[in-house]
Amino acid sequence: MNKNIPAKGGSASGGKHILPPLPYAYDALEPYIDARTMELHHTKHHQTYVDKLNGVLEKYPKLADMPLEEIMRKLDSLPIETADRAAIKNHGGGHLNHSLFWQIMGPASPSQGGPKKATDEKLIEEITKTCGSLEEFKKKFSETAAARFGSGWAWLARKANGQLEIYSTQNQDSPYLTNDTPIIGLDVWEHAYYLKYQNKRPDYIEAWWNVLKLLP
Ligand SMILES: [Fe+2]
């Protein structure tokens, strides 16, 4: 039996993790994210995280039915060898992070069925309360994404106490590692933008807001 990651990122039972299909075509996020980048990102980068995660989890049959988010939350206390713990953090994080990333984006052009926004009024209200305005939120989030040195992600995540927080993580570190729940994540690894934007990460970040479904 295969284990798939459901829409919002994470749990299922039995068997192996699989690459979740993209909910749109590879060229659906054009012109903001190009089709070639999307295809490589999904079929090569994300697939590799899935394969390597499955490879290491084979050694731990007792974890087979534990949701990946829960594995992340408990990673430090689970009986896992040190090297495998690092591998699960990297590849499990990569799988969770990308699974969310595909879901929160959507077609940008009308010919692809977009722009369809899936705005969440309660979330918008919370963001406005936390940051002052949506514009301020976007500014702060974009600055956080731009400032991440090297590879990583920018996040809007919910802390265990319910508060929203903007921060970034390095590599594929998942917010679940610190018991947070990711809501919006932006991949700022070069593999996410280099073909179209080369070294101009701020241009990619600015363009990305056009394909984020959750906010107007
Ligand atoms: Fe990525």
Question: How would you characterize this protein structure?
Answer:
This protein is an alpha+beta fold and 216 residues long. The strands form two sheets. Strands 4-3-5 form a three-stranded antiparallel β-sheet. The protein has a two-stranded parallel sheet with strand order 1-2. It has helices at residues 35-57, 68-73, 82-104, 121-131, 134-147, 194-197, 201-208, and strands at 2-3, 16-17, 152-158, 164-170, 181-187. It starts with a strand and ends in an 8-residue tail after the last helix. The chain is globular and about 45 Å long. It has a single domain, classed as minor pseudopilin epsh fold. Residues 1-13 have low confidence and may be disordered. Helices cover 41% and strands 12% of the residues. The longest helix has 23 residues, at 35-57. It is built from seven helices and five strands. Fe (ii) ion binds at residues 41, 45, 98, 187, 189, 191-192.
Q: Class by helix and strand content?
A: alpha+beta
Helix content: 40-55%
Q: Major sheet, described briefly?
A: 3 strands, antiparallel
Extended strand count = 5
Summed up, the domain count is: 1
Inertia-based shape? globular
Proper CATH architecture:
3-Layer(bab) Sandwich
CATH topology: minor pseudopilin epsh fold
- How many helices does DSSP assign? 7
- Estimated share of beta-strand residues: 5-15%
Give the ligands present: fe (ii) ion
The whole-number mean of residue pLDDT values reads: 91
Spans where pLDDT lies below 50 across 5 or more residues: 1-13
First-residue to last-residue Cα separation = 39 Å
- Rg is 17 Å
**Strand order across the largest sheet:** 4-3-5
